[in-house]
Each structure stands twice: as C-alpha cells, then as structure tokens.
Design a protein that fits this description.
about 375 residues, Metallo-beta-lactamase, Chain A, 8 helices, RibonucZ/Hydroxyglut_hydro
Length: about 375
C-alpha cells in the first residue's frame, strides 16, 4: 500500500508539472492547430523533413553518450571566463549600418534597415526547463542584463528547443518586443507566457512575411522539435532568410546538412552574411546537427559571402572539445576559400565592411 501511494503521488506530481509548469510551453489549438494540420510538411501527426532523417537515439546509444558525458574531459568546457565585450547601446545608434552581434550559442542581435532584431535569444543560465539542474552557461551569465537591451522590433525564433527558446528570457524581453516571427506551433508557447496573439506571426516552410521593409522567409531546416512529454515533432523548426533589399542574411537555426541549403541559395541567395550552426555535433546525430566541415559547405551552398559560426561558445551539449567546432570550421574554410568572422561574445560585425573580426580569442 505504501509503495502504491508513493507511485501514485509521483504520477500525480508529474501530471501536474506537465500541465501547470509554464516553461514546458503549450500545444497549438484553434486556427493554429488547423494551420499545422494543413501543412504539406505535416503527416501522420508530426512534422517531417523531405528526406529520411533517422537519429541513433537507442537506449544503448544514449547510455553510451551519458557515460562519455559523465567521464568528462579537461577541454569540454573553458577553464576560465570567456573574453566578452560589454554591451554598449551606442553601437546601435547608427541604424543605417547593418550589423550583427553574437551573444554565444545561437543568440544574436541583428540590426538592418533601421530595425533591431533578436534571433533565438536564449539568455538564460542553462538550456533546461529546470535551470538549477541543467549544464551551465560558460562563465555563468552574459556580459549584460536583458534590461540594458534597447527596444526590440522583432524576435525571430528557429524552433522550440530549450537552448533556443528560453522561458525566462522571453518573460523578461516580451514587454520591449513589438513582434515575434516563429515556425508553426511555436506561437502557443509564447501565448502561454503572456505574449498577445496579434504580436505573433507563425509560418510554414517557404512562407514569406513583410515587416517594415524587411522580407522574412521561413525556410527549411533538417532537425526536430519538442520541449515536453510526447510532443516530439509536433511543432515546426526552420531557418530564416532576412532580406532588407540591400542586405541579405541567412540564419540556419539548427540543421543537419541537406539539399535544402542549395534550394535556399537558388531561390534567395547570395547572402552578405550567414549565421551557420557548427557545434554540438556527433556522428551519431549528424543528420540533425551538421559536422563543422558541412557547415562550411552549407555556407557555400546558400551563396554566403561572410560566415559567423554559431551554436558554440556557451554550453556543452555534446562530447567534443568546446573549441573543436570553430577550429574545424576554420580549417575547412581555408581549404574552401570561405570567409569566416570570429567575433568575441558581444563584439559587433559590420555587414558588408571590408574588415571583420578574425582573432582566435578562444586560444588565449
């Protein structure tokens, strides 16, 4: 009887957490649900990439990954705080000068056409629904407080994983953000967290939206989604084309390598700047996270002129050394003749300028 009561209490507690704990998000309903059901990319109750994208996530594989993570490595995390530029609002005064500021992992501030955008602004301490239990951000926190950021014209999200969509960050940001652009199904999370529906634009792959002189295209990516129990593949994931007329930027989101990169390049390239994921990879899940050499090829496929490698420099979510992603990207870029900027966290990169940051700051 005691064991039965304990089990019942655990089941009830888990049910209440899933239903009542806000960071887990919400499921789409009403018109949003109908948009999902009507998507050509949605079949048999889940979103799908056009080509088979299996992941080796068997119990044996996951136990092996956990064993490697627990074993640790002296180079899996930096030994000291990373060099970072303190955020200076004066950097944004010249709104006619397009620029990008990387905040580690895939979080970026982009200024184009006089607008200030945030891409996947995960500013929390850990990519987890329970931050006290998750792997911590290198250095503990970013070199600024969210309150110091200027008014944001739009937040653009690639998908709903915790290392890209952070409950705490959205709660702090939402009052200073005018619009949110998200893939199908992600809007329900934002609404649960207090964002009004009229400020949210959801999009399917290849959908285009106009926003005050910008053309935003929700483009394909090869990944997956989900942030709660039994919601895997229930929301869409994507990359984004951000076209200001005179300046074009491509944001990869999370993606394995695939033919969609060439398709995007043919339809919307070339790009003045690409923001391409290169970290948290492993051969066992290479179809959902590119290997660094594929990152360079994807940059070339879309017709990129300059690339900033992202999805590294903040969290340890795989078993490679923390500097491996950027080092491998640079080696492949040198062989391929690709131009790569390597800004410090918080350092601005002026889009289209003849000079850009190339210092190997991570080696210091």
């Amino acid at each position: 009887m005691i064991y039965l009561l304990i089990i019942t209490a655990i089941v009830v507690a888990a049910y209440l957490v899933i239903k009542l704990y806000p960071p887990l998000g919400a499921k789409a309903a009403g018109d949003d649900r109908r948009s999902i059901d009507g998507s050509v990319n949605y079949a048999d109750g889940r979103f799908v990439y056009p080509e088979p994208t299996p992941m080796d996530m068997s119990f044996k594989t996951m136990m092996g990954v956990m064993a490697e993570m627990l074993k640790g490595s002296p180079n899996r995390k930096p030994r000291k705080a990373l060099p970072a530029d303190t955020f200076n609002p004066l950097l944004l005064q010249n709104k006619n000068q397009a620029k990008a500021i990387w905040f580690g992992h895939s979080a970026l501030l982009l200024q184009m056409n006089g607008l200030t955008l945030l891409l996947d602004p995960m500013f929390g301490s850990a990519p987890s629904p329970f931050p006290l239990l998750g792997g911590k951000r290198y250095g503990g926190k970013l070199p600024f407080e969210i309150e110091e950021l200027p008014e944001i014209d739009a937040i653009i999200l690639s998908h709903d994983h915790y290392d890209h969509l952070d409950y705490g960050s959205i709660k702090k940001l939402q009052k200073k953000v005018r619009r949110f652009f998200v893939p199908l199904g992600v809007g329900a999370h934002l609404e649960r967290w207090g964002v009004s529906r009229e400020r949210i634009t959801e999009a399917d792959w290849w959908d285009e939206a106009e926003f005050e002189g910008l053309k935003l295209v929700c483009a394909p990516a090869r990944h997956f989604s989900g942030r709660s129990v039994n919601d895997r593949l229930s929301t869409l994931w994507c990359s984004w084309v951000i076209d200001g007329g005179g300046t074009k930027v491509f944001f990869s989101g999370d993606s394995g390598y695939g033919p969609h990169f060439k398709q995007i390049g043919e339809r919307f390239g070339p790009f003045d700047l690409t923001l391409m994921e290169c970290g948290q990879y492993d051969e066992r899940w290479s179809l959902i996270h590119m290997m660094p050499e594929e990152t360079v090829q994807a940059h070339l496929d879309v017709g990129g002129k300059l690339m900033i490698p992202i999805h590294w420099g903040a969290f340890t979510l795989a078993v490679h050394d923390w500097t491996d992603p950027v080092e491998r990207v640079l080696r492949k870029a040198e062989q391929s003749g690709a131009d790569v900027a390597t800004p410090r966290i918080g350092q601005a990169v002026t889009i289209g300028a003849p000079e850009y940051p190339t210092s190997p700051w991570w080696r210091a």
